[in-house]
Design a protein that fits this description.
With about 300 residues, the protein is an alpha+beta fold. InterPro entries: Kinase-like_dom_sf.
Length: about 300
């Protein structure tokens, strides 16, 4: 009996190595069948999609916006212009096309979180689509705002989420430093006014890279530059009539505006920036105050 037990102990690891793929499949089947985990996390926007003659759509959006591009075909000749946490951005003519970034940090974390599940790819694609649907919802809701890019089309299919919007150029630190000071202040003023117009929105973070520079036309036909907010992944509503935007003001001022406002400021402008610093230190800084002080710097 002791000899049989010893032989079993010696050979079991060998069997496990030899048939590891079959054993893994069996273990996953047992887990799925008898110990199911809470698969398919909630995707509230995905659950609200409605079937239309043109495809799946978010309620309240125009069916004319529905268009599902051939993602792989487009990627072959479109230029990759940016990659973020969850999306890749391609340029095709004057449009920016966004697709899921399957090499991004969001996708990697999702695969790690659901490692061992038989439905990992499906779950992660559903989560990716949810981020697209959040962005589509905000783009539709805020289309009248000059600081929001024009939405041309979107696709809400589970395996092919996509968004086509107005194209913009990155706002780099080097580009800002090359601007005449008044032009730079105008740019920051437009950013601040956009955030001040929407105090009911909560921004998970605020970075200069979330804005791009678009070109718009005046009624006279003359072009002008307009910063466009393009990253709605972490945007939510405060709810309950809460319009306290001090958190937004703090993020915008610290991460985007402060250093550039000090750069090249004259004495009068330095006093206005110093006033913003004091308000920030006392947790009293608002987007309206930032916009007002930048406006005063331009006078």
């Amino acid at each position: 009996m002791r000899e049989k037990l010893l032989i079993s102990i010696l050979f079991l690891p060998l069997l496990a190595v030899t048939f590891r793929s079959q054993l893994l499949e069996a273990a996953l089947w047992i887990e799925e069948e008898y110990f199911p985990i809470n698969e398919f996390p909630e995707t509230p926007l995905g659950d609200t999609l409605i079937e239309t003659s043109s495809g799946l759509a978010l309620p309240g959006t125009n069916d004319s916006l529905l268009r599902c591009p051939d993602a792989e075909g487009i990627k072959k000749f479109a230029k990759l212009v940016g990659q973020g946490w969850s999306k890749s951005v391609y340029r095709i003519r004057n449009h920016a096309l966004k697709f899921p970034n399957m090499e991004g940090e969001g996708w990697r974390r999702c695969r790690w979180r659901w490692f061992g599940s038989m439905h990992t790819d499906l779950i992660c694609m559903r989560e990716a689509r949810e981020t697209f649907l959040r962005e589509i919802r905000w783009l539709v809701k805020l289309q009248g705002d000059p600081a929001v890019p024009r939405l041309f089309s979107y696709c809400a299919e589970a395996d092919n989420p996509a968004i086509a919007t107005e194209l913009g150029q990155p706002i780099t630190a080097l580009k800002l430093l090359q601007y005449p000071r008044d032009a730079m202040l105008e740019l920051f003023l437009k950013m601040a006014e956009f955030l001040a117009r929407h105090p009911g929105l909560r921004f998970g973070d605020l970075r200069r890279q979330q804005f791009v520079l678009g070109i718009r036309l005046l009624p006279s036909g003359h072009p002008y530059t307009q910063p466009l907010f393009v990253d709605f992944d972490d945007v939510s509503e405060r709810g309950d009539g809460n319009y306290d935007d001090r958190d937004t003001a703090s993020k915008f001022y610290r991460s985007i505006a402060r250093d550039f406002l000090w750069q090249g400021a004259n004495e009068a402008q330095k006093a206005l920036v110093a006033e913003l610093d004091v308000l920030l230190a006392n947790d009293q800084l608002t987007m309206a105050q930032i916009a007002q002080n930048i406006q005063n710097m331009l006078v």
